[in-house]
Amino acid sequence: xxxxxxxxxxxxxxxxxxxxxxxxxxxxxxxxxxxxxxxxxxxxxxxxxxxxxxxxxxxxxxxxxxxxxxxxxxxxxxxxxxxxxxxxxxxxxxxxxxxxxxxxxxxxxxxxxxxxxxxxxxxxxxxxxxxxxxxxxxxxxxxxxxxxxxxxxxxxxxxxxxxxxxxxxxxxxxxxxxxxxxxxxxxxxxxxxxxxxxxxxxxxxxxxxxxxxxxxxxxxxxxxxxxxxxxxxxxxxxxxxxxxxxxxxxxxxxxxxxxxxxxxxxxxxxxxxxxxxxxxxxxxxxxxxxxxxxxxxxxxxxxxxxxxxxxxxxxxxxxxxxxxxxxxxxxxxxxxxxxxxxxxxxxxxxxxxxxxxxxxxxxxxxxxxxxxxxxxxxxxxxxxxxxxxxxxxxxxxxxxxxxxxxxxxxxxxxxxxxxxxxxxxxxxxxxxxxxxxxxxxxxxxxxxxxxxxxxxxxxxxxxxxxxxxxxxxxxxxxxxxxxxxxxxxxxxxxxxxxxxxxxxxxxxxxxxxxxxxxxxxxxxxxxxxxxxxxxxxxxxxxxxxxxxxxxxxxxxxxxxxxxxxx
Length: 566
Prior knowledge:
Helix content is 31%, strand content 24%. The protein is of the alpha/beta class.
């Protein structure tokens, strides 16, 4: 058999190097924070501007504030595996709350501040958090009003929630409604005085790498967000790993507008920065003018954003007048690199990789200094400790090299499981997570990711389940059924297009449907365009089934026809 045939007969499976060959520090969140604090105690860890004042915390400050949160949680009888909801934008208290929960032995549950009232209702029910630490006002949202509307009992100081029976305590950053069951942030922290710092540290020492570390929610192939339970070590591995993957030195000053409640920002921005002893330049709500002012004033070196945000920054009124000469870690392919004050220094973003929230970011990738010609066209080698295989989507049987099938992964950063889902549903008999993504493995031991076997839409860096959006649109009077697809978009990656079949005699307008959907869904889940179709356009069966690829092709054709019509 010649060399080509031998390669073609090899099984489609990749093994990463032993995890021990990577340099990691301690593999729990409390031990991680303690380790970086011991390394960088007096360095600036974060900068945050609010109400005209600038907050600056050193690493020692961050550790002290996290221990204070842990003591306050212990005083509320929270402990091993208690779930702590954290509903905040990127602000100092978010970091103190997540690390503080881990020091107390609890499980942090970061919740999206994009959540609408129905979405928040679902998240609180399924997560079963016992404490919710929330920011009251986020953009035009008032989470206190939202919570008391969902559970009127919270308006009374003496009533526990019947709607959320596990929820025992809520604390707000911002004004607290008078006479309600919600506490202020200062009142919450004051409880720490009854618990000694020594007890909090002893509690932190009991946390094990295999314990649950955080529960993150991600849209996927189901109509509602999936609760993903990530282990302490899975999160910590990536917090340590991303500095090396990104080739960052100790001059990191990172700005990112995207929420840390998504694993990508938690690991790639927060983790990489803290591991390098750098500083996080926090911005609660993305505003392009304010972002440029912040990057100029605080001498950003590592800006980390999505394409649609770069576009807004480049269109900002202060784009040309901003001084971004401090920027060092920026890929030449990023639009920001066109700014006249930026001088590129040869750094490359490790963007050719593959992963998901189920593995707390990537499972395959390249060294940060890999030549672009090596990376192009593939999504990397298996990272330390990981095993990647390609299986037949129906039978689950292992395929051969170059054969296309479903990507399955296993490794030290793989989730513990999904909330409410039996292990045998989440994993196959060998412990692999079947991703629902299509791909193949080449002769150079590289994974090629080719898209989704399912119809999940990735827009603006976030995953959106079309099933969730479909269900909302179909609850609107006059909609017979709706099917959403992702259409390629230069700024967003994919934009959501809703293909809607109206009920007989119904007259529907896009603005009606969008306004209705906005009351149920986070803004990034809303369709950007609506196509009103007849049933005959889709050639539907009685069960209204149509393949996502066929629907996407139809939508592209209809959009092209509409664009060509005067």
